[in-house]
Amino acid sequence: MAWDAVGLERPGAVFDREAEWKALTAFVTDQRPGPALGLVTGRRRQGKTYLLEALTRVTGAFFFRAHEGTERESLESLGEAFAGHTGSPRVPAWRDWDDAVDALLGSGGENPAPVVIDQFPDLVRQSPALPSVVHRAFKRAGYTLRPRLLLGGDSSLVTNRLFTDHSALRALADLSITVDPFDFRQAAAFWDVDDPRLAALLHAVVGGTPAHRSLAAGEGPTGVEDFDAWMCRTVLNPRTPLHWEATRLLNEEADQHDRPLCHAILTAVALGHATTWAITHHVSRPLTDVSHALRLLEHCGLLRGEPDAFLTTALRYRIAEPLLAFDHAVLAPHRSTLEQEDTAGVWEKLASEFTGTAVPAAFAQLCRDWALRFAAPDTFGAPVATAAHGTLPRGEYGPEREAEVVVRGGGGHRPLLSVGQARWNEIMDIHHLDRLRHVLAVLAARGEDISRAKPACYGGAGFSPRLHAAQDREEVLLVDLERLYHGA
């Protein structure tokens, strides 16, 4: 049976993921002769498997999800699933993976035949030669058949090794998709939250990971006034899965590596120690150990190292999963207390840590994401290429100065378009603009071209009349929560 991609509508149960769905349906309906390989990756809990299962239901494709086991057990399970899919009364007795892959690729005849194997890296752990088997099978398939093989895998170290640009599978692939967390606007819609302040608070806890809603029994806060009670019912409640999700996530990703060091590094980053030197000093471990753990956490997608906007040779680390940042900055030090005392009473004490540490960091990242993804082309006077945190070190120019949102344009010289500060609970006033002017003056003294740079204030609590007046004179750009979530 041949399908038309236009007729493969995205099921209503699949929220958003329009670009991913369009790419997948175009891949499985591609009429070109010969086999084609697609790679689908994503961190755990992002809905990768859910998306692939939805695709197989719409197309009637064969779907197999691998599990840990021996090679023989996996071949038998695959054979049983394949027999059930084809309606065969006999389970194929495949001798090895060569037999199995040949059978899968030949199952559709001359029509495009999608075959989905999820958690493919689990099979490779059992059978390290499997990528070479797939490669050989593709060479044997020729051009009369049209198999469309989709391999799925989490963002683990094994997946990264298998699906990177330098691997044999990546060289063979016609399609490569990463299922990322929802951006902050998609996340607000997913949780049915219209209030920008509530959306920002919620995002500082659960981020854009879809599975976190199901781990909270599908329940979100009904309003800002319900947020504290919702926290007590879900994230802070040891009897709910969401309470333990951050711990489980790290344990799964870190596997047999130095988990205590990984926890210590994440705590350091959550508390604002963003550079390798600062992290090493905070955890009191050798630099070689810390550097190894940082690479591991980056490969797992839990940490991101990004160049400082002013010190491009320095990396600043941030936690990619807000729930992990919240857990290490706020929850983990008090978990035993939560198990013994009244949750509401404990949260009353922890709320100030949340609004003083976790929310400001998460809010600054929202502002950078807005500048990069949602700001209108004329907002900064040119297309935005990067939005990053910038640090001017202490020295001849005075005390250390930071700018949470430094926007640069594209091209070889990366022109400076904007220098901004982000404040969550502080009404921003003219002194914030003065600080930005000082930063720009320092940059100019260092030789940076600031002729196109706009000072910007990103405020979660609003702006003073004097700052609004400065905006009217086009001296500053003001971005509030409403603009972050609904404007450009």
TrEMBL record:
Q: What domain of life does the native source organism fall in?
A: Bacteria
Q: Which InterPro entries match?
A: P-loop_NTPase
Q: Mind telling me what this protein is named?
A: AAA ATPase domain-containing protein
